[in-house]
Amino acid sequence: MKLVETTLVLLIMGIMTIAGNTIGYYFPMTEAIIGYLIMMVITLLGIALAKFIPIKLPMVFWISVIALLSTSPISPYAKVIIDYTSKVDFLALTTPILAYAGLSIGKDLAMFKKMSWRIVVVALAVYTGTFICATAVAEVMLRLEGII
Questions:
Q1: DSSP label at 89?
Q2: How many other C-beta atoms are found inside a 10 Å radius of the C-beta of residue 4?
Q3: Which residue in 27, 90, 117, 126 has the most C-beta neighbors within 10 A?
Q4: What are residue 53's phi and psi, to 5 degrees?
Q5: What ranges do the domains of the chain cover?
Q6: Structure confidence by residue, pLDDT tens digits, 97-138
Q7: Alpha helices, DSSP H only, in 26-117?
Q8: Is the Cβ–Cβ distance between 50 and 59 less than 8 Å?
Q9: Is the CA virtual torsion 53, 9, 104, 17 positive or negative?
């Protein structure tokens, strides 16, 4: 039953993604639908692998492995997959995901209150560290490439 619920959530997210993708970023709807369905199948396969393979690795690992293998040069379908999935804009994809994450956090508001003010300090430290490290990597790479 969990797989049915997951598929339903992914379909609802897909509808929101395709709507935002078409309205906000002007990508063709039919190609974006195919691209999203490809991403959804890769995600569902990764979820299935995480459940059935006895090695306990995170679901994200299995999804990433399938995505990497399906778009690598060894895959005969890599070009097609990349062509279609590139029609789904990243921001159109992340907006419904972040909305869903916000709703799930709001659902556990009592637990969030127990964490007190310390969670804010930890979150700010994580965000700041991530930003500074990403900026440093970008700076180094841009300088090595001679762009800046």
A1: -
A2: 8
A3: 27
A4: -80, 130
A5: 2-108, 116-148
A6: 887 777 776 677 677 677 777 777 887 888 888 889 889 999
A7: 29-52, 59-71, 78-85, 90-107, 109-115
A8: yes
A9: positive
Amino acid sitting at position 62: W
Q: In which residue are the tokens 């804010």 written?
A: 120
Tell me how far the alpha carbon of residue 102 is from its chain's centroid.
Answer: 15
CA–CA dist 75, 88 (Å, integer): 21
Residues in the chain: 148
Which tokens belong to 110? 């009592």
CB atoms within 10 A of CB 121: 10
Amino acid occupying residue 87: K
> Over the stretch 14-72, which tens digit does the pLDDT of each residue have?
999 999 999 988 889 999 999 999 999 999 999 999 999 999 899 999 999 999 999 99
Kindly write down the DSSP assignment for every residue of 90-109, as one continuous string: HHHHHHHHHHHHHHHHHHTH
To 10 degrees, what angle do helices 78-85 and 59-71 make? 110
**Pairwise CA distance, residues 57 & 36, whole Å:** 25
* Listed residue (102, 82, 71) closest to 31, CA to CA: 82
